[in-house]
Amino acid sequence: MMDLKGKDVLSTSGFVRDDVEGIMGVAAKFLPVAKKEQTSDVLAGKVLAALFYEPSTRTRLSFETAMIRLGGRVITVVGVDSSSLSKGETLADTGKIIANYADVIAMRHSQKGSVGEVAAAADVPVINGGDGTGEHPTQALLDVFTILQEKQKVDGLTVALVGDLLNGRTVHSLSYLLSLFKVNLILVSPEKLKMPSYVTDMLKSRNVAFAETESLEEALKNAQVVYSTRVQKERFDDAAEYEKYKHYYILTRELIEKYNKDLTVMHPLPRVGEISEDVDDLPGAAYFRQARNGVAVRMALLAMVLGKA
Ligand code: NCD
């Protein structure tokens, strides 16, 4: 397995299966600490800088929780307006400066490639917490961790990715990771919000079986896991266009009971109507467990890049 010590985690495109399984193993070890059943101080004396220039609840707070529960400390920037980026400072200068203060950086920003710019300038590990429509590698890792927890395997599954596949960064990173397993993918979106061709080209080059469709029913009939996503309002220039698509797919209890009672339902959250609340009580509704798994996976990544796992 690749040694993550001192490395940036910007994308899942360079991972091999062994890397993913290695991270899953470390995350499983940290799960009792994430669940508050055990304590740990493996990251005592270390400082995480959480730079969140775009809105976040789960990603920032689970990174911060992960760091604190491993004995480390956290410094945080929330929003562009409160930072020197609003004065015109470059991402590279910001990266150089913060590397003096912190041992590791977790960052989110609206611009694709922005986290890579900081990483190139900072001489501490930088973890991508979401760069615009680009990638969200830690989410994808916690998604695979969740599939393993819910289904005890990834190989052999049919997984449907549903919603705004064009703008949603989580489904880009998740596609790279799932391509490392023997899966069938069903990509469900309106024509206008299809998966970008650089992702489908990667799937073809890795010989992943996948189908593209507009039909949610097709996914419900064939998949064991449905991964629903939010239409990414902040990426639309045209408000009317967003309104047209925002509730294009709504997963209801009735649909699940009609097509597949054993369906595992995932979502990176926040949901804004794509999954109706009457789904929440179904045993397969995994999205809240999925969010909890983020702490264990981020613990694993922090410990690994800091050379402590
Ligand atoms: C996702 C994101 O920020 O890309 N949220 C998250 O981190 N769980 C998904 C989204 O905002 O739709």
Question: Could you please describe the fold and organization of this structure?
Answer:
With 309 residues, this protein is α/β, with parallel strands linked by helices. The protein has two domains: 17-135 and 294-305, Aspartate/ornithine carbamoyltransferase (Rossmann fold), CATH 3.40.50; 137-290, Aspartate/ornithine carbamoyltransferase (Rossmann fold). The protein has eleven helices and nine strands. It has a five-stranded parallel β-sheet with strand order 7-6-5-8-9, sandwiched between helices. A four-stranded parallel β-sheet has the order 2-1-3-4, sandwiched between helices. N-carbamoyl-L-aspartate (NCD) binds next to α2 and α6.
Strand content: 5-15%
Structural class: alpha/beta
The rough form would be described as globular
**SSE string, helix = H, strand = E?**
HEHEHEHEHEHEHEHEHHEH
CATH class of the largest domain: Alpha Beta
Side-by-side strand order of the widest sheet: 7-6-5-8-9
Work out the count of structural domains: 2
Give me the CATH fold name of the largest domain.
Rossmann fold
Return the CATH architecture of the largest domain.
3-Layer(aba) Sandwich
Q: If helices are DSSP runs of H or I spanning 4 or more residues, what is the number of helices?
A: 11
